[in-house]
Specification:
- The structure holds two protein chains of two kinds.
- In chain A, 34% of the residues lie in helices and 27% in strands.
- Chain A has a six-stranded mixed β-sheet, with helices on both faces. In chain A, strands 2-1-4-5 form a four-stranded antiparallel β-sheet, covered by helices on one side.
- Chain A is globular and about 45 Å long.
- The two termini of chain A are 27 Å apart.
- Helix content of chain B is 75%, strand content 8%.
- In chain B, helix 2 runs antiparallel to helix 7, helix 2 runs parallel beside helix 9 and helix 9 runs antiparallel to helix 11.
- Chain B is elongated, with a radius of gyration of 31 Å.
- The two termini of chain B are 24 Å apart.
- The chains are: A alpha/beta, B alpha+beta.
Chain lengths: 226, 303
């Protein structure tokens, strides 16, 4: 599903964010990407969504070589590789449902399609009863759920979760991880970027560890080792 | 495609509404620029009509000797009438000249009294020559200068030439000044619109970032801002047209006294060319505004 061949990313003047990283993630896998702050995790996510281009190496999503992806192709990539962030990135003046609908609106989907998809996906993330609430009227966990719902509307093949629990307490964080596991069960490949030791150890799934931009460990059933 | 266009239009209206004061000032600046351009057009129309009117009034007078025989005068009149650029040659006899003079000065008892004192008719007969094409005035004067006849007493050419030159100079100066003022307003508008779009993009930076995140195309992100600039243009052109029509309606009575006995109506002129002027102004301004917006959008929307 995701393949990185010898990927390096250099920033001027001489900072190596990623250093010859090679890895393969199969369809339907749930993978945790761990490492300390500034170790290249977010750079890797940015490369996977076409926000950054690698200085060296090759990135493939399925059969699609996105190493040198053009600007006009990025919107199509973002519909296949969805991403959620620590800060939710919701529009404060829109309700949760409107935030989810917004993703479909900008893709030119019809009003009828939006009306049918949004409640369905809101129900999946457990926000069926809070669709008309505004982001500031719900908890951080619920905001992250709305962000996940928005990421799911295109039924992406891959979901990248960049520190999704960073702003949440442990209960809400666990609920989000459970939701990601549920999405993974539906067949979506999930790449969880985190430095939360507890969560990673409890998951008992594949763990990839980055250190100073290099891949130092890849365990099938791993633990947080740094 | 239609759905996306509809949504881009919706986002554009939201953008205008959220920055209502900035939108208002942008439209005002646009109206000032368009008003100055319209004023320039009106000045050119009025001055060209004024020049035509004055040219139409101008005739070239050839003063003849008082003792000239009627037959010689008529022969000379025939000779001049045969020149290529002559529309009409009117013979004004001594008696006619006297009658015209008395009528012209009937309210001036000093002049009439002085004339009566003379006891004779001091005026000369003359030939009033009307040119076919007022623009070929110089050529006609040249032709008349080549006619030599002993009954010609004086040729009165230079005064008219000077008058026409003065009118032309004033017209071109007004046009130049109008052009510079219009250019200044157009430049201010461009800068202002560029800034308006920049502020609009700044206001929407969070929305734009999320649009990119969830897979909106660049076209979809940029379209609302371009639509906004077209909407500003449309509103600006409509307001300017209304205001300018009102302005011309107020101006027309003053113009009527200036163009007395002449069929000139600036309001009718604008009414007759309304669609043409509206379309030219709208498309001209829209193209310029879209170009300015495109530069702003390309520069600032990559948030």
């Amino acid at each position: 599903m995701i393949r990185l061949d010898n990927v390096s990313k250099l920033y001027q003047p001489n900072i190596k964010a990623l250093d010859h990283v090679s890895l393969t993630i199969k369809p339907g896998e749930f993978v945790s990407l761990v490492g300390q702050s500034g170790t290249g995790k977010t750079t890797l996510v940015r490369c996977l969504i076409g926000e950054e281009k690698p200085s060296e190496g090759k990135i493939l999503i399925g059969d699609w070589d996105i190493t040198d992806i053009g600007k006009s192709e990025i919107p199509y990539l973002r519909r296949q590789v969805a991403v959620i962030f620590q800060d939710f990135k919701l529009l404060p003046k829109k309700t949760l449902a409107e935030n989810v609908a917004f993703a479909l609106e900008v893709a030119g989907k019809s009003g009828a399609k939006i009306k049918s998809v949004v409640p369905e996906v809101m129900k999946i993330v457990g926000l069926g009863s809070k669709m008309k609430r505004y982001p500031n009227q719900v908890s951080g966990g619920e905001q992250q759920r709305a962000a996940i719902a928005r990421a799911l509307v295109y039924q992406p093949k891959v979901l990248l979760a960049d520190e999704p629990t960073g702003n949440l307490d442990s209960i809400n964080a666990q609920e989000i991880i459970d939701l990601l596991l549920k999405i993974n069960e539906f067949g979506t490949t999930v790449l969880l970027v985190t430095h939360n030791r507890e969560i990673v150890n409890r998951l008992k799934r594949r763990v990839i560890t980055l250190h100073d931009g290099r891949l130092i460990s890849d365990q099938a059933v791993g633990k947080y080792i740094i | 495609m239609l759905i996306s266009l509809g949504r881009a239009l919706k986002f554009s209206f939201q953008d205008i509404a959220r920055n209502i004061w900035l939108s208002f000032v942008t439209v005002i600046i646009l109206v000032l620029a368009l008003f100055s351009v319209n004023l320039l057009i009106a000045v050119q129309v009025i001055s060209s009509a004024a020049v035509d009117t004055v040219r139409d009034k101008i005739d070239i007078s050839l003063y003849l000797r008082t003792e000239a025989a009627e037959s010689d005068i008529l022969a000379l009149r025939g000779k001049i009438a045969a020149l290529p650029n002559v529309r009409e040659v009117t013979y004004i006899s001594k008696q006619q000249a006297l009658a015209d003079f008395q009528k012209k000065h009937e309210n001036n008892p000093d002049v009439i009294g002085a004339l009566r004192e003379l006891d004779t008719n001091p005026l000369s007969p003359s030939l009033a020559i009307h040119p076919q094409d007022p623009n070929k005035y110089d050529e006609l004067i040249n032709d008349l200068n080549h006619i030599s006849d002993p009954i010609i007493e004086a040729r009165n050419f230079d005064d008219h030439k000077l008058l026409l030159q003065k009118i032309d100079t004033i017209t071109s100066r007004i046009s130049e000044a109008g052009f510079l003022v219009s250019l200044l307003f157009v430049l201010i508008t461009l800068l202002f619109l560029y800034n308006t779009i920049r502020v609009a993009i700044y206001t929407h930076r969070q929305e734009i970032a999320i649009m990119r995140l969830v897979g909106a195309s660049s076209w979809f992100i940029r379209a609302p801002f371009l639509i906004s600039s077209v909407l500003y243009t449309l509103i600006g052109v409509i307001i300017t047209t209304g205001l300018f029509y009102l302005f011309l309606s107020l101006l027309q009575p003053y113009l009527e006294t200036f163009f007395l006995n002449y069929d000139f109506n600036i309001v009718s002129y604008f009414r007759a060319n309304f669609v043409y002027l509206l379309l030219i102004e709208f498309f001209g301004t829209a193209i310029v505004n879209i170009l300015a917006s495109l530069v702003a959008v390309r520069k600032y929307s990559n948030i």
